[in-house]
Amino acid sequence: QLLHRSMEVFREYGYHNTSMAQIAEACGLLKGSLYHYYQSKEALLLAVIERVHQQYRDKLFYLANDATLTARQKLEHFSNFSTDFFGASTEGCLMGNIALEISSSSKKILERIRLFFNDWIEAMSLIFQPLCGKKEALEIGKACVAEVEGAVMMMRLYGENSYLLAAQQSIWDRLEGLEKNKKSN
Q1: Interval 58-71 mean pLDDT
Q2: Up-side HSE of residue 63: CA atoms within 13 Å toward CB?
Q3: How far apart are the first and last CA of the chain?
Q4: Are 67 and 61 in contact, with CB atoms under 8 Å apart?
Q5: What percentage of the chain carries pLDDT values higher than 90?
Q6: What does the alpha-carbon distance between residue 118 and residue 37 come to, in Å, rounded to a whole number?
Q7: Contacts of 45 (CB under 8 A, 6+ apart)
Q8: Is the CB of residue 65 less than 8 Å from the CB of residue 83?
Q9: Counting beta carbons within 10 angstroms of the beta carbon of residue 15, is it exposed (0 to 12), middle (13 to 18) or buried (19 or more)?
Q10: 3-class DSSP state for residue 98?
Q11: How far is CA 94 from CA 23, 36, 110, 168, in A?
Q12: Tens digits of per-residue pLDDT, 66-121?
């Protein structure tokens, strides 16, 4: 519960604009109680990042390796997950927001965020790999993640989910194009 509430506060206010007092208040704790669990705001954010990353691994990324699902079924799960996760809020993506804000001030935080995005790219590339080569699938995975993150940023800026829907449609169009190409060859 503490990590979930902390994630919401970090996602809404960012790293630098979030205080331990704000997090404690959101969690219904005294500020000193937070320091019992986490030595610093950075340590708490790292724990939040790891928790979010683990949730993605457990609920989504593992599907990319599921041989019982087609590429279409996997992409459907990914689309539904991103709609549910990003479409429910206009605060954006915690990982993207923090990565932009931190830039190079905390290598430890950036490395953890890179691990998350690397896993997401890998999962997306595994979806496309049966339809094209491994190298092309990796480039598609990178493009898909960039499209979704860009769309989430635009959603945050304009407060509407049409950007996410357009990014998802673009990814679906890419999949359909590869499927048609594979059938014709």
Answers
A1: 93
A2: 21
A3: 52
A4: no
A5: 68
A6: 29
A7: 6, 10, 15, 98, 109
A8: no
A9: middle
A10: helix
A11: 15, 24, 12, 19
A12: 999 999 999 999 999 888 877 666 677 888 888 888 877 788 999 999 999 999 99
Per-residue pLDDT, 94: 85
The 8-class DSSP code of residue 159 comes to S
Cβ-in-10-Å burial (0-12, 13-18, 19+) of 8 comes to middle
* Predicted structure pTM score: 0.90
pLDDT band at 44 (very low <50, low <70, confident <90, very high): very high
- The Cβ of residue 21 has, within 10 Å, a number of other Cβ atoms equal to 11
Q: Which residues, in sequence order, are CB contacts of 29 under 8 Å at separation 6+?
A: 2
Q: Residue 173's pLDDT is what? A: 96
Chain centre to alpha carbon of residue 161:
16
Using alpha carbons only, what angle is made at residue 125 by residues 113 and 123, rounded to the nearest 5 degrees?
A: 50
